Amino acid sequence: MAFATVWNYCVPLTIITVACLVRTAHCQAVQAENVTVLEGGTAQISCRLQNYDGSIVVIQNPRRQTLFFNGTRALKDDRFQMVLFTPRLVRIELTNVSVFDEGGYFCQLYTDATHHQVATLSVLVPPETPTVDVKQEAVEGGEVELTCVSPRSKPAATLRWMRNGREIPGVVSQQDNGKTFSVSSTIRIPVERKDNGAALSCEAFHPALGTQRRVRHYRLDVFFAPTVRIVPPSGILREGDSLSLTCSVSGNPLPRNIQWSKINDTLPERAEISGPTFQISRLSQSHNGTYLCQAQNNFGRAADHYTLLVYDNVSVTTTVPPTPTSTQPLTSHPATPTLLTRSFVLDPKDPGAVVETHSAVPYAVIGGVLALLVFTVICVLIVTIWCSVRQKGSYRTREPILAWY
User: Fold this and answer.
1) Does this model's pTM top 0.70?
2) All domains of the chain, ordered by start, with CATH?
3) What is the DSSP letter of 78?
4) So what's the pLDDT on residue 12?
């Protein structure tokens, strides 16, 4: 067994036969070796001689055209070169090999009888990186059909679809193009909005690649209708404040135009629109209403609304001094001042309602209430102790009566 290396690709060479030609007392033999090479590489075709006595050696191509006659070129093809001619080994070299050079090369030894051996040249065509064809657009809720194609290889390449480390079975078809083969693998998968941008890959395996592979990466492009959401401001808006709304839009393809409008009315004069942003400065109650953001693409339309409610900006606080009474003695201490506030607060049931409230803080009254509470607690304690003592005395009175009986 012999070995040849072409483009770092090692292929075992098989001895076909040994022809023994008998002439008087010795035997002549010729051996031919099979060769496998990658397309575009260089092949060396060897004829080994035994007991060579100077007879004529002829090398022919698969079409039985003579390439070399005893080391002399016979065919005008510069790709063939005689690299070695010795009594033991005749070797020619073929560069830039193509699939059309494939076949049997004849090593002929002319003695009393003509004998030949055939060296078979095999050409491998590794696949290029496969391509991915999409039959139709992938739309949310539908299916997408993807076809991985390896247009040229020899022998036929093996294709495999992968997603997230898992193989997706495909329908494989193969076509014979004469010297090479084209292979395709088709898959059909359902798609949703979440599948947009999902990564897939098609891998091509081939004996000429060894443990390597050709990989084509592909990302799903799933089309879907837009979604719209208005990002509202935080807190309550009052007159004089500024309003800023942002319209968050998604979709594939992403809508280019975003439309702002006011339901049953026109947009305020002070409204400013910059793409997805809508602003109104110095708000007033005339701006109240429902505002709409709309977006659309080729696959649908979506909208979201925001209801603006502007409240009055009112807050009043007053201090009322105490009013002297005519019955108060002149020698008495001055009356304790009372702070009376008048303000407006928000009704918890309706954040927009304004409710007037009054609050008074009479410090003397507060002191009197606390004293009354303390006096009540002391009275309760006294009554409780008195009831407890009386009940014990009743028990002691009954004990002598029971002993007499």
Assistant:
1) no
2) 29-124 (2.60.40.10), 131-222 (2.60.40.10), 225-308 (2.60.40.10)
3) T
4) 36
